[in-house]
Amino acid sequence: MLALWFLAVVTGCGGAQHTDAARPLPPFDALCALPTGATTVARLEPDAVMADPGLRALLDVVVPRRRESLVRARFGFALGEAKEIVWASYDGGELLLVTLDGAAADAVRAGAAHMDVERSSDAPVTRRGGFSGKVPRELVAIREHTLVVGSGDLTPLYDLLRTEFELREGAESTACMGAIPEDLPARGAGSVAPFTVWWPEPLALPEDAPIALLLAEERSMRVTLRPAGEQAIVHVTLRGAFPRTAPDNFRALVAAVASSSFARLFGLERLPETLEVQSAPGGIELEARVLSDKVADGLRTAFTAETSDLVGLLADE
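Above: the chain's sequence. Below: its structure in token form.
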């Protein structure tokens, strides 16, 4: 049954709606559902970000309000309609998992209107597959309010669907699939940060970059962003075998950055005053406060000025 059902979905052949009276499905956890192999994972709570002026200013740089209609056209939903957005990058492909206020099936149909659809089905799940330009794309309403979009290499999408359908067939709910390392928990003891990025694998830094030596033993990293009035609290968790001198080395690096033109562009001149660095079991914890509007202004300048090049600014220092 499972094999036939899964085949119907990945081939777009439709099929009868699955009606077995299995145990209720566990709540869908987008972060746990991500298959292993992700190189970057990001999680966003649009409501929380848009409710904070500082974080909203940062979001506006990445997705200007005048371009939000493009998000709807491409993915079938507006940012304000999403409770949670999780994005993961894989070698050759991407996954987007979105928890919506409305019906995910409607988002699938809306997003498919702007792609070349080659495969279509509405049972056992609503799904459209084909191409967006030359890039393979699949949109799937995996739950009533959960949209999954796969782009490029669709292997991660099919791995996710296989696990979901095993649950629907009555399989026991297992632990997370492992995209995020266990020692970089998705959710801490407190509330979830409205914006988090994980790098589950070691960063591929240029050997001549000043920070490359500090991160030579780094094996995974997490960065969270939380609002704090006009400021944003940036917390960095590094996992790896760091020497005892690592905290002092990071403080020295931040002090050097604070005196650079890069820091002036982003309003980071006083960063060392707010920096806290602590050794932790298996890694390093860093936390600092930044002025959200200053960082947003810097990003806007870097993205729009014809001669602005962040890599060049860093290389000049």
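DSSP finds 13 helices and twelve strands in the chain.
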